[in-house]
Amino acid sequence: MRRSTTTRQGGIHVSTHLTRRLLQLYVGLTLYGVSSALLVRSGLGLEPWGVLHQGIAERTGLTIGVVSIIVGALVLLLWIPIRQRPGLGTVSNVFAIGIAMDATLALVPEVHGLAARIPLLVGGILLNGVATGLYIAARFGPGPRDGLMTGLHRLTGRSIRLVRTSLEVVVVVTGFLLGGSLGVGTVAYALAIGPLAQFFLRYFAVPEAAPAEPVTGAAPAQAILRG
Predict the structure, then answer these.
(1) pLDDT of residue 25
(2) Do the Cβ atoms of 121 and 188 come closer than 8 Å?
(3) 182 Cβ partners below 8 Å, 6+ apart?
(4) Burial status of residue 129 (CB atoms within 10 A of its CB: 0-12, 13-18, 19 or more)
(5) This protein's superkingdom (predicted)?
(6) Tell me: the pLDDT tens digits for 49-105?
(7) Measured between alpha carbons, how far is 168 from 227 in angstroms, rounded to an integer?
(8) Residue 151 to residues 111, 165, 198, 220: CA-CA distances in angstroms?
């Protein structure tokens, strides 16, 4: 009887633990899309991949959220030759962020004047830090872009800093040439997102559960955030 009670309690603990992780994952991904939309509405510059998404959207007529989904899927295909292993969070990242982004842009109108744009920029960057901490701490696998970075780091032996910087320079330049928004917000994001994400990653850290927990293909969060 005691063993049965212990087993039942252990099962409840694992179930609650998994529920929390799933909640963090999808809340984090949704907030990430919201934060990216706020950066778009600020008109003061986007995060590196956002510059690329916006540039492609300008050229194709697709919404920036749809472009984000397409680019995420294409980047995920690049995981095949570098033998990266996706998790639930990886696949969810491809779709959830783009959907949340387009939904937010449909609700939040364009703003004019720095008095309105600056709060949107600051709020977008802060919310992005919260969102990044939430979904990475859930440990369901890195997003397609972060996984590409860690995969290239493992394959080439180059530092995370060098691989990340190289990727983001290529992405920003390509996006800017296509018409993406590059500005003070891009610089502010680059300077602030590392410390913010590291802080919220610790704040939202989920304690380890039983060994029976399913494998999710998660990459070390420190490798993703280390810059």
Answers:
(1) 96
(2) yes
(3) 45, 46, 51, 172, 175, 176
(4) buried
(5) Bacteria
(6) 999 999 999 999 999 999 999 999 999 999 999 888 899 999 999 999 999 999 999
(7) 12
(8) 39, 14, 21, 12
The answer to whether residue 35 scores a pLDDT higher than 70 is yes
CB-based contacts of 114-123 (< 8 A; 24+ apart in sequence): 117/42, 117/43, 117/44, 118/42, 118/44, 120/38, 120/39, 120/41, 120/42, 121/38, 121/39, 121/42, 121/44, 121/45, 121/185, 121/188, 123/35, 123/38
Highest-scoring range by mean pLDDT, 85-89, 100-104, 153-157, 191-195? 100-104
User: N- to C-terminal Cα distance for the chain?
Assistant: 52
**What is the model's pTM?**
0.85
Q: Give the pLDDT confidence score for residue 9 in this predicted structure.
A: 53
Cα distances from 79 to residues 84, 135, 203, in angstroms, run 5, 20, 30
Q: Which two tokens stand for residue 164?
A: 């990340």
More confident residue, 186 or 14: 186
- The tokens for 93 are 């990242």
Tokens for 167?
A: 């990727």
Distance from C-alpha of 129 to C-alpha of 195, rounded to nearest angstrom: 8
Q: How far is CA 77 from CA 28, 50, 52, 212, in A?
A: 23, 19, 18, 30
Neighbours of 22 (CB within 10 A): 15
pLDDT over 70 at 2, yes or no: no
